[in-house]
Write a structure and sequence with these properties.
The protein has two helices and two strands, in the order E-E-H-H. It is mainly α. A hairpin with a 2-residue loop joins strand 1 (37-38) and strand 2.
Length: 87
């Protein structure tokens, strides 16, 4: 299966400046972006352990980078349906 969006945060994988996250062996991840996943591990703090916390975390990060809060809220709505959180 080819993913269009990071299965952790929902970021469009084609917009990832690094081409995606990496697995332990250095290959590109097919599921996760470079902001969420590197060397086979998630980069989010350990307390980010469910979809609701990930949404809040992403909104904070997006607003800190200058994004409009309403757009950030809207952009994070699909997070609960992503593979990492839907288990």
């Amino acid at each position: 299966m080819k993913y269009k969006f990071c299965q952790s945060c929902g970021f469009p994988l084609k917009k990832d400046k690094n081409g995606g996250g990496t697995e332990k062996d250095g290959t590109l991840s097919e599921k996760y972006c470079s902001m969420c996943y590197m060397d086979g591990d998630f980069l989010t703090p350990p307390e980010i352990d469910n979809a609701e916390r990930m949404q809040k975390f992403c909104i904070e990060q997006m607003k800190a980078s200058g994004m409009n809060g309403i757009f950030a809220w809207f952009a994070t709505r699909p997070i609960p349906k992503l593979e990492r959180w839907s288990k």
